[in-house]
């Protein structure tokens, strides 16, 4: 019988005001049982019958279970009974309940900022004491900390690629401006059985994390009261009154329970400019060893390895595409090398006449800038499962040195490339929102 009572009394228990260093120091035969409440709820569960599991030894029943605030301030005196919260309702099947409405407000948890504590927190803990009386006359007093967690949370992908992992953030901070590639955020509401969610309302604010917020039209963003997947990259920019690169949109979602209790999550996403990748450097010269160059690899090649090169040096301080199968065109550029983005590169290239889109460039001097457009067949898969696709890159070259020796000629340059992702000019017809199964 002692072994059985030890098993059921593993909850943080102080019996008859005793404090013991190990299980073997306690005479469990003097304890009639133990009452273990559920450890956590969401802030929407303001009218929830919280279950308590009641353990008793053979022949003993719980006759009274009381919930008190714990006013203890030191670990040396861990139980100080404060205001009484509730008497639990004891069932006949080893369970009891008390209603969370007796706990008081869920909006006044202590929050400390810059050394000042205010009672403004929306999540936190209630320090409580469970006082249980049993039919054998014994009484137990147990420390009980009830955690009040968020009623709506962000979800991110787990190892299996499913939005099941709870996160403090949406996991998304940037979206490439005008890039139609899917960028998803996920939320889930959190309640216990019996708590009803009546609505989730989404809204946005541009370039201000504090608002004002504008509610999404339900036709643009219909929202579920359970879980949601939202492709923010494909919400029409007109929804926000238009966007430019660098704009920040704060997405806010407010969940409301049937009793009016609310909770909120938000995330701020920057619609980042599409810029060139990291800068690299290269050289070309009339020396065979450095007469050819590949922008893709960043390496020089000689005449015996021309199959890998993309451009070949020419004696008039220029270069030409190395082979007929290199799909590249060059334009003498007026762009500012240091600040130009991929949109500017595309605009300038498209504006150039066919006569100015050339296969060779000559008479280059220091600080000259050359724009190029090149298409490569790139493996977007893996070595084991290749998936070759044509990918078009824009590149920008800046000549950094021009050396003319007696018999030698050399060009040094910096360059950078990037892929510009844009949606075609069509009206979006695919759904913006996908409702996923509850986590």
The proportion of strand residues reads over 45%
- Our Rg estimate from Cα atoms comes to 34 Å
CATH architecture of the largest domain: Sandwich
Helix content: under 10%
How far apart, in Å, are the first and last alpha carbons?
41 Å
| Average pLDDT | 89
Structural class: mainly beta
CATH level 1 name of the largest domain: Mainly Beta
For this structure, the CATH topology of the largest domain is Immunoglobulin-like
Oligomer: single chain
How many strand units?
32
DSSP summary: helix tally: 2
Number of self-contained structural domains: 3
Low-confidence stretches: 1-28, 425-439
Largest sheet: 6 strands, mixed
Shape annotation: elongated
Brief characterization of the structure:
With 439 residues, the chain is mainly beta. It has helices spanning 2-8, 342-351; strands spanning 13-15, 33-37, 40-42, 49-56, 62-70, 81-87, 89-90, 95-99, 109-113, 116-121, 124-134, 139-149, 152-157, 163-167, 174-176, 184-189, 197-206, 214-215, 227-231, 248-257, 262-272, 280-285, 292-294, 299-301, 311-314, 318-321, 327-332, 360-361, 369-379, 388-404, 409-418, 433-434.
Can you tell me about this structure?
The chain has 439 residues and is mainly β. Helices cover 4% and strands 46% of the residues. It is built from two helices and 32 strands. Strands 1, 3, 5, 6, 11 and 12 form a six-stranded mixed sheet that branches. Strand 25 (311-314) and strand 26 form a beta hairpin. The chain starts with a helix and ends in a 5-residue tail after the last strand.
């Amino acid at each position: 019988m002692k072994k059985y009572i030890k098993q059921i009394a593993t909850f943080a228990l102080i019996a008859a005001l005793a404090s013991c260093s190990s299980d073997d120091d306690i005479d469990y035969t003097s304890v009639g049982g133990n009452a273990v409440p559920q450890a956590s709820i969401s802030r929407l569960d303001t009218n929830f019958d919280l279950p308590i599991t009641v353990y008793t030894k053979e022949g003993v029943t719980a006759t009274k279970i009381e919930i008190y605030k714990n006013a203890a301030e030191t670990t040396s005196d861990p139980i100080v009974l404060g205001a009484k919260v509730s008497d639990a309702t004891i069932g006949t099947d080893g369970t009891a309940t008390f209603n969370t409405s007796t706990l008081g407000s869920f909006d006044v948890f202590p929050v400390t900022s810059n050394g000042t504590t205010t009672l403004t927190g929306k999540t936190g803990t209630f320090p409580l004491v469970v006082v249980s009386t049993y039919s054998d006359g014994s009484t137990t007093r147990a420390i009980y900390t009830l955690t009040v967690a968020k009623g709506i949370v962000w979800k991110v992908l787990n190892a299996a690629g499913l939005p099941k992992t709870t996160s403090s953030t949406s996991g998304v901070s940037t979206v490439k401006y005008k890039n139609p590639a899917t960028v998803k955020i996920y939320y889930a509401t959190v309640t216990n059985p019996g708590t009803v969610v009546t609505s989730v309302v989404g809204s946005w604010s541009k370039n201000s994390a504090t608002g004002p917020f504008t509610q999404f039209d339900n036709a643009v963003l219909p929202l579920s009261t359970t879980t949601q997947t939202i492709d923010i990259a494909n919400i029409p920019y007109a929804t926000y009154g238009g966007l430019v690169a660098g704009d920040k949109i704060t997405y806010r979602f407010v969940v409301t329970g049937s009793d009016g209790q609310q909770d909120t999550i938000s995330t701020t996403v920057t619609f980042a400019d599409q810029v060139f990748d990291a800068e690299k450097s290269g050289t070309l010269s009339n020396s065979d060893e450095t007469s050819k160059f590949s922008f893709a690899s960043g390496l020089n090649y000689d005449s015996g390895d021309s199959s890998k090169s993309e451009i070949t040096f020419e004696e008039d301080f220029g270069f030409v595409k190395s082979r007929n199968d290199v799909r590249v065109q060059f334009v003498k550029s007026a762009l500012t090398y240091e600040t130009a983005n991929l949109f500017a590169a595309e605009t300038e290239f498209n504006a150039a006449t066919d006569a100015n889109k050339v296969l060779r460039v000559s008479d280059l001097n220091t600080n000259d800038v050359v724009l190029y457009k090149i298409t490569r067949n790139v493996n977007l898969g893996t070595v084991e499962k290749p998936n070759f696709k044509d990918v078009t890159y824009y590149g920008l070259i800046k000549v950094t040195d021009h050396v003319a020796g007696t018999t030698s000629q050399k060009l040094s340059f910096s360059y950078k490339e990037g892929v510009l992702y844009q949606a075609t000019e069509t009206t979006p017809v695919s759904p913006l929102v996908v409702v996923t199964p509850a986590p």
